[in-house]
């Protein structure tokens, strides 16, 4: 899965969990302030990410550095997938 | 409406007096005089249990030679309570050693908060400060590592079913929810064979304030950086430095006293929380750098929180926090001392004075229903890590 398709799926997940018009959601829209995703919805976002990408989101990584917008979430997923591949390889 | 402890009933005056660590001559005379009167012991027992001060009361009665002045059955209840907490606290202290030995081996720096340290080093005897769990402050970045070390020590992150006596492991979703919506991780639990401590509970706090609509920010990493080593039960543990520890106690007290979530659960006003601050200040009066504390509060703009806690500590115990400190922290508008609600929202005013609030559990019936509604609406809207 390449970066573009990961980002596209992340945006889909965010659109499903946001009440904002999906047309206005971009990769830099801020999860909480722009998309109105509160802590409870954020947990749903994380659960969907785990399901869709098969990654395990650690509790400690639930930070703004990793989860403030689609771009950062994408980078986080890529890093996780790379780490998993290394462990398996 | 009572404005000082001298206007309280003998039973309630006794509850506050006996929660002190050190008694002066006037206190001793007052306690002896009160005990020589006819008293409503059911109120004393209820207040002592509710405010977690019963064991301190027994400790003082014993030291003052007052045990034979009190009905034997009452003394028996107090003595039993003390014995149980002596055993419970000792079990918890042993576990602190077990956990911190493992934390130290794994390079984890965690700080012991509140009652666990106070019971070990500040209160006069092991059973005089009761607590029901271990409270640690951790850096959220260490959370997976901390939980993993605890799991290796036999803990399960989950919920305890009081009826079945079983620990139900938390789901990933529950664990994420705790992280995202509260100031602590989901509790870590371990069953024991000790009938007085069927389960050991470890609370892993990653913030000293509250989550959601909290307008203040105190960085946990900054506090842990300054944390100081202390020996508890033969283990090297850490506590927050002298001023930070006091700030944490005050933040904890304010949060639970003034915010609707804790009022609704009747966890708001407990005498022991004020006594904690008074005993801590008495114990470390030569070491607390008040100017450092004032500067910190100004920097974080949280003077209001500290003033709240110190104001009521002084009201209950008189002259604990120096006057110049109170002046330095004093907010322009002190109306909030008699208010409650949700931060950033229009507050609600108590109809009762402080002493009536602290001793009357009926205060819950006075809580404005609108405050409860706002709590849920705002907590949902404002909470979040992002």
Q: What would you say this structure looks like, in words?
A:
- The complex is a heterodimer of chains A (about 90) and B (about 375).
- With about 90 residues, chain A is mainly α.
- Chain A has one domain: ACP-like (Non-ribosomal Peptide Synthetase Peptidyl Carrier Protein, Chain A).
- Chain A contains four helices and no strands.
- In chain A, helix 1 packs antiparallel against helix 2 and helix 1 crosses helix 4.
- The mean pLDDT of chain A is about 90.
- Chain B has about 375 residues and is α+β, with helices and mostly antiparallel strands.
- Chain B folds into three domains: about 70 residues; about 150 residues, Beta Polymerase, domain 2; about 150 residues, no CATH class.
- Chain B contains 18 helices and ten strands.
- Chain B has a six-stranded mixed β-sheet with strand order 1-2-6-5-3-4. A two-stranded antiparallel ribbon of chain B has the order 7-8. A two-stranded antiparallel sheet of chain B has the order 9-10.
- The longest helix of chain B is centred in the first third of the chain and has 34 residues.
- The C terminus of chain B is likely disordered.
- Chains A and B meet through helix 2 of A and helix 7, helix 8 and helix 18 of B.
């Amino acid at each position: 899965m390449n970066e573009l398709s990961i980002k596209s799926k992340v945006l889909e997940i965010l659109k499903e969990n946001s009440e904002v018009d999906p047309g206005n959601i971009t990769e830099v829209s801020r999860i909480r302030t722009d998309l109105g995703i509160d802590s409870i919805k954020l947990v749903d976002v994380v659960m969907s990410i785990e399901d869709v990408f098969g990654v395990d989101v650690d509790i400690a990584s639930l930070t703004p550095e990793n989860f403030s917008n689609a771009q950062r979430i994408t980078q986080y997923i890529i890093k996780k997938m790379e780490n998993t591949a290394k462990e398996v390889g | 409406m009572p404005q000082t402890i001298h206007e309280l009933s003998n039973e309630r005056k006794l509850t506050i007096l006996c929660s002190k660590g050190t008694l002066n001559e006037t206190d001793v005379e007052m306690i002896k005089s009160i005990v020589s009167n006819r008293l409503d012991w059911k109120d004393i027992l209820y207040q002592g249990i509710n405010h977690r001060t019963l064991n301190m009361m027994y400790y003082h009665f014993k030291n003052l030679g007052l045990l034979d002045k009190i009905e034997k059955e009452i003394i028996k209840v107090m003595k039993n309570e003390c014995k149980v907490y002596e055993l419970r606290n000792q079990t918890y202290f042993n576990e602190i050693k077990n956990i911190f030995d493992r934390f130290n081996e794994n390079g984890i720096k965690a700080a012991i908060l509140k009652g666990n340290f106070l019971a070990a080093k500040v209160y006069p005897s092991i059973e005089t400060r009761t607590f029901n769990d271990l409270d640690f402050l951790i850096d959220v970045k260490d959370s997976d590592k901390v939980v993993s070390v605890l799991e290796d020590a036999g803990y399960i992150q989950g919920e305890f079913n009081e009826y079945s006596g079983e620990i139900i492991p938390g789901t990933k979703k529950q664990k994420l929810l705790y992280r995202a919506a509260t100031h602590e991780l989901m509790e870590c639990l371990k069953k024991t064979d000790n009938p007085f401590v069927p389960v050991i509970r470890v609370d892993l706090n990653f913030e000293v304030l509250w989550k959601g609509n909290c307008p203040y920010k105190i960085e946990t990493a900054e506090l842990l950086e300054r944390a100081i080593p202390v020996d508890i039960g033969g283990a090297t543990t850490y506590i927050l430095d002298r001023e930070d520890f006091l700030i944490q106690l005050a933040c904890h007290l304010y949060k639970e006293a003034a915010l609707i979530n804790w009022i609704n659960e009747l966890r708001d006003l407990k005498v022991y929380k004020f006594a904690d601050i008074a005993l801590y200040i008495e114990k470390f009066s030569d070491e607390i750098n008040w100017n450092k504390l004032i500067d910190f509060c100004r920097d974080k703009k949280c003077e209001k929180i500290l003033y709240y806690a110190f104001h009521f500590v002084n009201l209950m115990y008189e002259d604990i926090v120096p006057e110049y400190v109170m002046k330095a922290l004093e907010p322009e508008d002190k109306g909030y001392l008699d208010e409650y609600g949700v931060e950033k929202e229009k507050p609600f005013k108590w109809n009762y004075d402080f002493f009536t609030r602290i001793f009357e559990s009926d205060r819950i019936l006075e809580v404005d229903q609108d405050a409860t509604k706002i709590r849920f609406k705002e907590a949902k809207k404002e909470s979040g890590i992002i």
